[in-house]
Prior knowledge:
Blueprint: H1 2-6, H2 11-18, E1 32-33, E2 52-60, E3 64-66, H3 76-81, H4 84-96, E4 103-108, H5 110-122, E5 129-140, E6 146-149, E7 155-159, E8 161-165, E9 168-170, H6 174-193, H7 195-200, E10 201-203, E11 209-212, E12 226-231, E13 241-244, H8 258-262, H9 268-291, E14 294-295, E15 303-308, E16 311-317, E17 324-325, H10 327-333, H11 355-381, H12 387-400, H13 408-419, E18 422-427, H14 429-434, E19 445-450
Parallel strand pairs: 10-16
Antiparallel strand pairs: 1-8, 2-4, 2-5, 3-11, 5-6, 6-7, 7-12, 8-9, 11-12, 13-15, 14-17, 15-16, 18-19
Helix pairs in contact: 9-11, 9-12, 11-12, 11-13
The chain binds adenosine-5'-triphosphate (ATP) and magnesium ion.
The site of magnesium ion has 4 residues, from loops.
Amino acid sequence: MDRLAAAPRSLLAWEAVCCLRDRPFHPLARAKAWGDEPGPRAGFDAESGQPVWLHWIAVPAHRVRTGSTMEAFAQPLARSLLQPEGLNHLTARAEAAGAQRGYLWMPMHPWQWQQQAQAACDTGEVPCIDLGGGIGAAYPTASLRSLVMHAQPDLHLKLSLGVQALGARRTLPARYLHNGALAQRCLTQLQDRDPWLGQHLLLCDERDWWGLRQHDSLIREAGDIACVLRRYPCDLAPGTWLLPMAACAALTAGDDLPALRRLSCTDADEAWAAFRRIAALLLEAGLRCFASGVMPELHGQNVVLVVGEEGPQALLLRDHDTLRICPSLLAEAGVDVPAYAVDTSTPNSLMLDAPGQLLAYFQTLAIEVNLYAIAAAIAVAFDSDEAVGWWILRDEIARLLPAGTGSRLAATARAALLDAPEWPFKQLLAPLLARETASTGMPSALGSMRNPLRGVPS
Ligand SMILES: Nc1ncnc2c1ncn2[C@@H]1O[C@H](COP(=O)(O)OP(=O)(O)OP(=O)(O)O)[C@@H](O)[C@H]1O
Ligand SMILES: [Mg+2]
């Protein structure tokens, strides 16, 4: 909280606030399983405020998969991430190791290097030359594996990290990175077609990624050595700042809600007015995406509020690799269907057959996890009733989807959101306990619950 007070508009300070809560309503949210091996781990989270010093390896260029058009020999990663002094240092190490020509220098998370990669590199199982650690400082965000570069806060580096969070290993399989770039292109197309989205749903640029090639097929790459650059928009109006939505649900030990205070809320009425504004942005963004046949994962860690003088004015989306699509709806809307690479041997949740399945991601992640957590936190911090939050959500959805108007899809959304007796509900514990091995997706299953928008007192 002291760090936040010293830098109240710093995205990084707010990332640490998000960790007070982590994923809302997940009973094991704050458990990060670093494994049993001794080794470094303290300081690798946003709460610590400590930098992570990157480890570097040189990988033969022909063993690299990439989505970037930048030439490997020009060392795009080192040049993007390091300041001149660090770059000189790394260049000298690469020269000494004979890893200059024909190699790509790649950053790794130091934990990943020590616990997951070093042994395989030493035995030659993984083709790489160790260039050593300690070059380039980066600070973890709430997602643990996405780091803010110390010297350039507009540039984040997302790294493979075999640690388990929410019961999933946080590695970066190449197909995810490939699909993320396709998803970004699809979202850009939506922005071009829908002026509201163009103005209110901004995107981080996540197209430049690199990963070690260990198999002939993209689908089989495990993603233990991989990274992606995340570039934040640099053309935001002066005076605007970024606030992860998740921070709006993070209460302090004294039951205060610093994010809402920062948005100038002094009492319950002002807090609910801010909630309405935030909810209106998220609901409209989600419903407009739905109308075009896609749904991003709109939980609070992926969605960042762009705050101007008048309060939240737009959303900035990051983490595109989980953009759900309904190909038939995309085709109907005249949007190109992204050619996702999926592993057909495992259940795939990226491409969905029915509109209702897309909506379920909206209901569970955007509303039940993200917005409801904010409403519940407001009720505590401002001594109010969380039912007010549900009432506002119903009101805003009814405003966006007025009865008797709109397309067939709007009618589908209205029926599922406002009229259906039940809503989908993400089950967490049984799927987590039932899993046999840790995979790269959070174990969950879909149950149902009473529609939270029905029976809310008017
Ligand atoms: N409010 C939140 N909702 C969901 N996840 C959260 C939240 N706050 C923190 N987290 C953490 O962030 C991660 C969310 O997972 P997700 O797959 O969206 O992100 P990621 O892919 O690791 O990173 P990024 O979003 O930076 O690309 C998990 O480790 C989770 O514990
Ligand atoms: Mg995320």
